[in-house]
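FORM 7B - TANDEM STRUCTURE REPORT

SECTION 1: FIRST PROTEIN
SEQUENCE AND TOKENS:
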Amino acid sequence: EEISLFDKVMVYDKVRQRLVSSPAQSPEQGTATHGNTYEQTLIWQHYQNTIEAAKILNVDLDKISNWTKTCEMLKPIEIGESGQIKEWYEETYIGSMGEKNHRHMSHLLGLYPGNLISVETKEWLDAAIVSLIDRGDLVTGWGTAQRLNAWARTGDGEHSFVILQKFISNRLFHNLWDFRPPFQIDGNYGITAGMAEMLIQSNLGYINLLPALPSNWSSGSFEGLMARGNVVVDAFWINS
């Protein structure tokens, strides 16, 4: 069975018993394969978002059942022999495919900006942390910002704060532009998004206040941060 989607084709993989996008390509690391974590997760997230939108808008309700079945057949996440989130399903241990410590981590988009991997899926979250540690923090500005957001989603405020310090100390020109000649505005946007993720998260359907609060921010306040659902949040805390 084939399902047309975004000018690609999803086919049923009898060996792994899942729908896969084929051919699949992992960003910046190459290796065309029969499905991979990045594409499977991206497709899963699009279906989930569409299902949620249909329910909110009360449209296409007759299609939700089929969309849900497709989501269940994607099975995007697998854990490898090193305890990591696999980037490719053929991968075994970290480094068996691709480049160790590569700056990109697109196979973790289920952690951020998606919601497939979260504090509610502990086994996957632990595996995502293994992958984050392997990728390291010494990357360009945009990569630093991506890591800040991902670590904030894990709830690790101390590691998030270290990454934020590195960005401010090593990744900014004097005019506060993110340097990656001439500059990378996504680093600036991403790092502020990461700071917000440290203070408030709402990607799981509820508001989580101070989810990745470092000890350096034991007291503080913020005003005007937006949570999903068009909710404006102000907060202050003392000796948390």
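SECTION 2: SECOND PROTEIN
SEQUENCE AND TOKENS:
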Amino acid sequence: MTEFKYIELFAGIGGFRQALDRLGGKCVFASEIDKFAAQAYEALYGEKPAGDITKINAKDIPDHDLLTAGFPCQAFSVAGKRLGFEDTRGTLFFEIVRIAKEKRPKVLLLENVKGLVGHNKGKTIETIILVLNDIGYTVDFQVLNSKYFGVHQNRERVFFVCIRDDLVEHEPWVIEGNNVVAKTKKRLSQLDDVKTFNFDWPEQGEVTTRLQDILEDSVDERYYLSEERTEKLLARLNGNHEGETDKFLIDDQGRKTKKLKPLDISPTLRREMNGNVPKVVEPQFTAQGRRYRIRRLTPLECWRLHGFPDEAHECVKQAGISNNQRYKQAGNAVTVNVVEAIGRRLLPWLEGFV
């Protein structure tokens, strides 16, 4: 396997790096402004990422084949105010453009929340694609859900694959279905001179993961809720838990009454962990009969929900990063398995076979 070089912007805890290193990639530059994410990144990879990308001269970034970026999503997320490019975090997309225009990598692989596709009635994604076209890249995009890639989390994200114009034949998108991606592509296809192609996206077939398989066997008492809080949460379920003989989840402090069986998957983990960590309801059988205990998912379980190996979590834990920050950084991470699946299909461009 031929080695390819890549950079990781808005690196977080290195979800892209976890995946791409498995495929023979070599990270030659990373940037992350968040203090705790940078600490985790250094603990994991032995390299401290550069800080504020807006203060880095593009000429000083090493040459690379692939630029990756999970650019800040709060400006487009349904969990935020959805201000888009009016939000300073939204304008950080143009830092990607600035660097790509200078360094001319073969491929850009970008990730963001699904909400970006329909944001501002589609004008935001139109701007993104036309700007990428303008600097010499042909674009395809798709929404992928982590649950189809061996990850126990319902996490939909939009991915952009952008190939340098000289490496790909332009062709109209093949559009199937009537979902938000199909509708957006139909509209964008009507634009003059838009440059598109059809990437071989990994399939989203059957969900084969089992949530219970990644739960820890023994969990510290600090993760369990008090009896009082447990009773309040169970009361909100309106008795729907009765008859359960196995573990199941409730989300957002019980505000949602839909229960998730062990064969199902976790709700999307958020960066904002203020009480929003999914909670496991565990039936226990005693001499007095069945009782229930409720606990939060542990930081390790949250990392597993993004495809990170246990040793990566242990490394960050040993670095002294708090439980809260480990929750937070996991909730903000790109899903490793999805990036790896896309990366395998990018190898022909990265290794020079195209």
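SECTION 3: OBSERVATIONS ON SECOND PROTEIN
The first strand starts at residue 4 and ends at 9.
The two ends are 15 Å apart (CA to CA).

SECTION 4: SIGNATURE
Preparer initials: ____
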